[in-house]
Design goal:
Layout (H helix, E strand, L loop, with lengths): L1 H9 L10 H9 L5 E5 L13 E6 L4 H5 L2 E4 L8 E4 L5 E4 L12 H11 L9 H11 L46 H4 L2 H19 L1
Parallel strand pairs: 1-2, 2-3
Antiparallel strand pairs: 4-5
Length: 209
């Protein structure tokens, strides 16, 4: 959810004739999409994408990697420089604590290399030039530590303005089935797997009582 704030401000929306995530999945299932590029996307039902050639770029080898035909190893959040925007719109910056493992690279450099193979070379040879362009195009991002007013408020029009009246009397349901397994990083952790197992055991004990 947090990444959605930055994505909307940057205009990560389907252009005219483009497809949103739901439409991409539907068309892939029908065999109408030849190739799908998953950038760290793991919270999807990958069984619906079997008809497409899947390229996965990410760091923790979760659902997307297991379904992929090609895997491009990206650096984890602790291994790369990054700007993050939380759910309230506060811009935050991260610096690498350790170097990427094995053949992993920062996401921007992988995409830069791919652009060359596609004959559409991006004009960014280092993180500084990329960030300068980001700040120039999206002036809400340089305000590190502040809640910035969206530079493109119209992009947020895709969000619902009010609660659907038909759902007003429907109680809230917690969408999290397993607190310890909510993302690829947690699912790759032996400690979290043990916590999840212990929770399941406690639930079964309570049910028996």
């Amino acid at each position: 959810m947090a990444s959605r704030v930055a994505g909307l401000d940057m205009g990560f929306l389907p252009v005219d004739g483009g497809l949103d995530t739901r439409k991409i999945i539907e068309n892939s299932k029908k065999g109408k999409i030849e190739t799908i590029f998953l950038l760290g996307a793991d919270e999807l039902d990958m069984s619906n994408l079997k008809s497409s050639f899947i390229i996965y770029q990410g760091s923790h080898g979760d659902a997307g990697a297991h379904a992929a035909d090609v895997i491009l190893p990206g650096a984890s959040y602790a291994e790369k420089t990054g700007i993050y925007v939380n759910l309230e719109g506060r811009v935050q910056i991260g610096i690498p604590a350790i170097n990427p493992k094995g053949q992993a690279k920062e996401d921007w450099s992988i995409i830069r290399a791919l652009s060359g193979h596609l004959g559409k070379v991006l004009p960014y040879d280092n993180i500084d030039s990329l960030r300068s362009k980001l700040f120039q195009d999206h002036p809400s991002f340089p305000g590190i530590g502040y809640i910035a007013k969206p530079a493109n408020p119209k992009n947020f029009d895709v969000l619902p303005k009010k609660v659907n009246k038909a759902s007003e009397d429907v109680p809230f349901v917690n969408p999290i089935c397993d607190f310890y397994m909510t993302n690829p990083i947690l699912r790759a952790s032996n400690v979290m797997a043990e916590c999840s197992s212990l929770t399941d055991s406690l639930d079964m004990t309570e049910a028996a009582e």
